Fold this protein.
Amino acid sequence: MNQHQYIRFKIHISSEQYLSVYQGVAKNISTQAEDGRRIVFPAQNIKRFLTHDGISGYFEMELTAANKFIAIKKLDNSLLGHV
């Protein structure tokens, strides 16, 4: 039975930092998940959350059992620390 994985993390990337993605300098985001794992994923996966201030918030990434990206969503900050 294939179980999906859900990885929660918080992130703050300024619009200037995300600009390096547009300039082709950076392609991946690296951050620490809520459970302590270091995760790296394509910056394109989080692009839709980009505002004039950058990307900031608490997110949940859904992956297949084989670690294939499915989706990412922004969570309410009140859920921080809750599993």
